[in-house]
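Repro:
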Amino acid sequence: MTKCLRTSIFVFIKMQSRLFRTGVRLVPSRGFVMESIRDILKRKELAEEDIYMSKKDKEAIRKQMEKLKQQEMEMQEELRVKDEDRRKLIQILRENNARLPDHTIESILKWKSGEI
């Protein structure tokens, strides 16, 4: 190592240690930029806030998805029950050789389910 290079490294290390004691550090980016501990802590705080909000958003989305799945399952069950009731009513009518218009069958099914 040349004497000039050793001196440069020594000066750089000494400067860094002095800056560290005063709460300032050098950050490499297109040269060196002075960055205070306050700035570092502010960035850290913002990053932690972003992480916290991201977790909260994911939790809210997960809960909403669970709610939607539950609603879908309830709707499918309701449709299955209505189809089963319709099938049973038509079967009873056929066994008794009765014929009713579709709108009458729908009215009977609505009455049975409590919609009327």
